[in-house]
Amino acid sequence: MKPATAPLPEALRPFELIEGVVTPASLDHQVLQFPDRRPPRAWYVALAVTLSALAVGVFCMGYTLYFGIGAWGNNRPVAWGFGIINFVFWVGIGHAGTLISAILFLFRARWRNAIARFAEAMTIFAVMCAAIFPVLHTGRPWFGYWLFPYPNERAIWVNFRSPLVWDVFAVSTYFSVSLVFWYLGLVPDFASMRDRTSEGLRKRIYTVLSLGWRGATSHWLHYDKAYLLLAGLATGLVISVHSVVSFDFAVSLVPGWHMTIFPPYFVAGAIFAGFAMVVIVLTVVRKTMNLSNLITDNHLDVMNRLILAMSCIMGYAYFMEGGTAWYSANPYIQHTFKNYVSGFYGWAGITTVTCNIIIPQIFWFRRMRRSIPAMIFVALAVTLGMWMERFVIIVISLHQDYLPSSWHLYIPTKIDFGILLGSFGLFFTLVLLFARVMPVIATSEMKASLPGAQASHGGASHE
Amino acid sequence: MGEHNPPVKLPILTSASQDGVDGVSRRRFLALMGASAAVATGAGCKPAKDRAAVVPYTKKQEEIVPGIADYYASTFQEGEVAYSVLVKAREGRPIHVEGNDEHPVYRGKTSFHATADLLGLYDPDRLRGPVLDGRLCDWNEATDHLVRGLKDAAGSGRGILLVTPAVLSPSRKALLARLAEALPGLRHVQWEPAADHSAREAERTLFGEVTLARYHFDRAKVIVAFEADFLGTLGDTVSAIAGFAGMRRPDSPAGPMNRLYVFEGGMSLTGTKADVRVPIRPSALGRIAFALVRAVHLKGGRALPAGLELSALDAFALERLPEAKPFAAQLDALVKDLCAAGDKAMVLAGPAASVEAHVACHILNSMLGAEGVTVLGEQAAPALASADDFKKLVDEMTAGKFAAAIFWDVNPAYDYPDDGAWKAAMEKVPERVRIGLLPDETAANCSLVLPVNHWLESWNDFETSRDVLTLQQPLVAPLYQTLQGEDILLRCLAGLGRPAAENYLGWLKERWRSEVQPKDSPIPFARFWNACLHDGLLRRRPDPTPARRLDGSACARAAGQAAKVAPGKMELVLDVDPRLYDGRYGNNGWLQEMPDPVTKTSWGNPLSMSPVDADRLHLKNGDMVSLGKGSALPIMCQRGQAEGVLRLTLGHGRWQGSVASQVGTRAWTLAGAPARRVLSIDGVRPTGGRQELALSQDHDTKDGRDIARQWSLAEYARKPQHELEREELPSLYAKQEQKGPRWGMAIDLSSCVGCGACVVACQSENNVAVVGPEQVRKGRAMHWIRVDRYYEGDAASPSVVHEPMLCQHCDNAPCETVCPVQATNHGPDGINQMAYNRCVGTRYCANNCPYKVRRFNYLDFTSETPESMQLAFNPEVTVRPRGVMEKCTFCVQRIRNADQIAKREKRPLRDTDVVPACGSACPASAIVFGDIANPESGVSKISRSNRGFHVLEELGTKPAITYLAALKNPAGRGEP
Amino acid sequence: MNEATSGTFAVLGLYSDAQKIVDAANKIRPRKLGRLEAYTPYPVHGLDRAIGLAPSRLGALVLGMGMLGTTLALLFEWWTSAVDYPLVTGGKPLFSWQAFVPVMFEVTVLFATFTAGLAMLFVFNKLPFFGHPVLHAKAIKDITRDKLALSIENAGPAFDSEVARQALIDNGAESVEIVPVPVWNPAFTLVGLLQTIGAIVAACVVAGVGIYAVQKVLPIVPPMLHMHNQPKLNAFRSSTFFPDGRGMRPAVSGTVARGHLPPAFATPEEAGDMLGNPLPLTQQTAERGRKVFSDHCAVCHGAVGDGMALLSRAYGAKPGNLLSNEVREHSDGFIYGVIVLGKNAMPSYAPDLDDSDRWAAVHYVRVLQRAQNAKDEDLR
């Protein structure tokens, strides 16, 4: 007798998406209950912390508005400092959400369902944080709207050759699309919330938010189609957005910025940082909101695998950059790259490489991929590393460019740090609020993928 | 220094803020807490209503058309030099100072001190009226008091002291003579602490008389300078730079080009242009100079002056002089060059050189026949008090010899080295009168303070050479309750019962009618006078003077002296500050912020020290040291400085004046004796403290980048043709076609001496903001044009290249592409335009400018400008508020103006019609502006030179500015 | 029984198993009992076909809108950069399409996604709709949680709720609910109207105040420095610095500006001795003189120079008669001198007339004199 077919290697076997028995009813009960219950004390403490961070940020922003960018460390030649670093950083964080909800949807990676909703929410919040900076960093923020091509009595228009205008379009498109995408996914869940909450203000709110969704099959028909299309479009968008952000640098002629590799390298970096942030948030969320049976170790494991993959791509990108500098035989670029790892700011470059390339390598080990402390450590490291990477690219490249006579150091001020802190405060405040009042997991998607949820024959089926 | 002399606040002298330019930003930052509240509550919102109404002239002025500038010829005096200037006025207010194009020597160039002193006129610190015992009074009371004081003094039998700066005005001199008749006890002393006293001493011993030496650099082929910074601080720098630069720009490697030998301890501006530079202690200069005398006599067979025997020079055999050993090669070459050059040679020494060195220079000049050719001493110099005279004077004051003292436009309380002695001396003078512009240190302990007119409010005449007499006329009626100093004297005369004239203008015209106008002239005086005023000068044809004869015995004595001079442990050279002169411009924000041409420090005067010494003491830039006396001061490692030599500039460390006070170190106190310029120091002691220098350039070398070319003549000659001819780089885009002129510039790095006159002129013309030391340290200085200074070669004796850097107005400007709102874009005449009002301030353009010439208003530097200073703003140029990017516009306002005129005259605009501020100010004429689209224009011709190159050409920005490589003419090429 | 069914909107049969409801739908559909519809908490694959729905045509619309976005973006960029506001930047051509691509892409995506998302909700699914009967059914709680409902809906007289109910039970519905047509409350009640109007008014007030604030207050809050208020002193501006409040200062008397040499003569007589007319008497100079004369002189001296002008008649002034012998005997220089220095009541016209204007005027005065006493040969 021949033995049964050889078992697939562990890595190729589809892993369990849920632990224990989960029925649609239990799912609803588990996920949609939070708005009904008073939050635990821990939640209030956390909110207090994030709000005070936000307060610091708001104060520093006010200070900047009142006195001007002179309150920051920016100078000549380093005309861009923390402002743009934070902008690029936060836009990057956003990308993980769209990637999970759109690209993985197209790839039919069913494990995304559990984490998609949270990731999308984080996208929205991250982009909100990012949007602060382009306006705030201008010399005359009250004229920020001049960057939009609106008809005006002076009949003057914006410069469509400027990457900053591309940015304006890319980021605003990205934000609105993410919003639509996110809301679309929420509509059925709002319907469930509506129907499980008793009369009262909250019911009214959910009723309005759900637009009177009733789950008619004729609606699901178009809904599915729209969701598919949106996923496709968002995929193109998410790749374009950070490419455009990278054009801010690649299109200029600053040595160290003027690189053809920037677009893919920035996109990879963005997803990298985003995943790290998602991991940080999810590990906390699944613990405190005990969703461990829905967001399983398997989910985190596969996330960490992606982080590892991205880390390797980043390593390649860094190596490529160095190679370009060496091969181009361009003294200016070569000088800049020496500065990345040596010189006054050398520590920044070294931190970047350590955090982004070396530390994530521990994810080659399964045990590490599944140990919460390990993954939090790595995620924090990556977050720091990716912020530092933007610091390296922007500050180090600028502070010594073509004419040595203009070289000058850049020293950030308290205000710079205060605003950075404030942006984190804003982000986590929004996350905390979201976790309390909205479905943190896309229940309708989960239900659709629960065992026995679909007809096994008679009628087309996807899987 | 501050701690010794706390600022004495004279009451009701000024309404200006006492914490000055930087104070503006400082105050704002200290207001953090209140501000945040203001932001939150929106408190302190004041409506920005337009405060100005339309006010026309009631009586129409013949020469003034509102909105159109007028030009007036006038004269600006500094020390023993009188610069003939042309002042631009709008609606009867002076707004810019340039050189007088009618003047035979200056030809439209002038000292940037004259340009900058426009701020002196509008200085908010200025005295608003006479102050008697600390209270504001009216002029009658003041003059009565003064006259009474003088009468009493005359009666008391004790003397009356009148201290003035050098008197170059014959009319003022005559008036003073008249005063002396009226007041027998009057002692008039002329005091110029910054004058070259050793030079005067040398002349006195050699010729018995002191003259205003005039150097013809345009004739000199070999120049030897002993601590003589003739390009930076020594006397008439403008004609020196013009003449020198004229001999530095050969149109072919064959020359003609002069060769400059510099012997100096510190690195001076002149040292940076040296072809052969010998870093050497000042104490050795005398011996070296006499060694040259001996060598020129022996090798060149030039006769020694009568009375100086060769035996007297035995001590100075070049081969035996220890300090000459390291530089034997250079000295041999120098001797050869001198003998070859003959009367085309020029040897000169500066204040830090000993009297003997000066004597030796005169000997050399006369041996070589240069005396009377390159070096002229025809015009008798004003009788300045020598350092010793002044010391004696102070002793007499202490001894109570004077019943009254009048200090007119001098500030001995600040520049007299010994504060204690000075205070004691002043206490012994019962009646102390101050006649001056500002409430300065001397005014602080005078009982009667009489405010005078600024030179832009005054009448006068000046005689500094025998062939030109220059006139000074007021540009505006006195802004405050002030009088011209001479008018005060006239009132005194009237009060003393000896009325001379009802006002100084009358006196001046009377003198000119009786003495200046040729007796046989047919034209009426009014016409003669107006013509002179119109040109600002009167040219005369003087009869030649006999050449001066050297006193041989004096030469011998000097030789004996020179042999004896012993080197100090460390030698400290005190030099006049190229920006603040003797300190009189301390309150001038433009000059304070202007970077020192060599050290590139603004706002302060670090002690420069040779890198070797600094390493020995483990010191870096900004570390504080103490020199035994005086307070601690920051140091600066200065490449090219001789080991064991320290250098410090005078003129800083004032303690009165909202801008001047507490900036830098007061070097006068270190000198010990008045006007001493070099002294021996036991050593420097690090105090461990630090004080960041306000450096405008942090990095000193080119790091091997081909951004500022400098060749020796030999290299230039060796260059293969293909390296010299330049071809256009390929471009993806079709070239934008050009209609009308395409404005461009050519900058000759070989003529540029790096003096920085362009920086000041630009600041005045374009309303460039002053930001203060804190912001300069942060790298936020606003200068539209800067002079980059790069060192090449070893730190001991580097070769230096100065490169003025301003907006290159690129054809393919990187800044334009990236501006999201098209605030900066390309004009039809090729100018890279900047629409301030459209600028949002993303600063992307600044990042993308490879030349880093764009300036951003990081803070509000302008809206708190004191009202009087606002008058100094050029009405033709927008004043930029906070948050806006700005940069060089090629003085577009001047271009448009010339365009208007051309239109009115119905002719095409010629490129010669336009000269930007930097170009017209450049004493070296290194900056040439014009239409580069027209191959026949001057600028195009220069740009086609073999030395031409674009900075960072490889980036394809296609700059409109062509630089011409700097040339050096090192020794060893035989006949220069 | 019809009146029983007429009030019925639909009959819902609830299922737990996706397979069952799909089978049921497939069985019931051919019987044409009414319009078939299903309500499920999540999309059940195949159910749409089972109840006979055609595939969605959303895709085509999205594609179309996307293309529209692309085109509009390109047109807009071309028009603003090359037509309406043509500025050269960085030496690039006005229509540098390469640089326009990113924005085109973003606009495409924007159009497409908004179409996909919003058209789906609002156009295809006709949401929001809060009055749908099913939303008021008891079963809706289960439907949005875990139950799958197959509904046979009242689509005309053929519908019979009893039959439908039976059909559903036969096909394994766990429970059946009859959903009545809800009783609509009238759309326009007084309260409703008042609320609506009130809301609109409130919105207008808020918007108005907001816009006013933005327009009037924001631009003058201190940090927002604008350039219209310059600290410099332009021509004609007043200044609080000078006691007389005038920004424009008179020239100091006795000074001489470049190109403004004061006249060398003190009296017209001197001028007469010194100067002769440098301008040749030609057609243009005479023409110019006529203009100058009529602009500046005629008002007093009269159009023909006889001193008989409106002004002088009105005010009884006695301006000189330029045709008098006395004036005719004056030299050109003298007349010039009078123009420059003034005479009796006549002020100096130096500020108003430049040198050539003055001489041209002198010519014209001569012309007038000659015209008034023409000799015979002149007429020929």
How would you describe what is shown here?
The complex is a heterotrimer of chains A (463), B (976) and C (380). With 463 residues, chain A is mainly α. Helices cover 67% and strands 0% of the residues of chain A. Chain A has helices spanning 24-31, 41-67, 82-106, 112-136, 163-196, 201-210, 217-250, 262-288, 297-328, 331-341, 346-358, 366-370, 372-399, 414-437, 443-449. In chain A, helix 3 (82-106) crosses helix 8 (262-288). Mean pLDDT of chain A is 91; it is low at 459-463. In chain B, the strands form 11 sheets. In chain B, strands 5-4-16-15-14-6-7 form a 7-stranded mixed beta sheet, sandwiched between helices. In chain B, strands 25-20-24-21-23-22-26 form a 7-stranded mixed beta sheet. Mean pLDDT of chain B is 90; it is low at 1-50. Chain C has 380 residues and is an alpha+beta fold. Chain C folds into 3 domains: 1-183, no CATH class; 188-217; 268-373, Cytochrome c-like domain (Cytochrome Bc1 Complex, Chain D, domain 2, Orthogonal Bundle). Chain C is 48% helix and 7% strand. Chain C has helices at residues 2-6, 18-28, 47-50, 58-84, 101-124, 140-143, 161-170, 190-217, 268-274, 283-301, 310-315, 325-329, 332-341, 355-372, 376-379; strands at 8-15, 35-39, 148-153, 175-180. In chain C, helix 9 (268-274) crosses helix 13. Classes of the chains: A mainly alpha (463), B alpha/beta (976), C alpha+beta (380). Chains in contact: A-B, A-C, B-C.
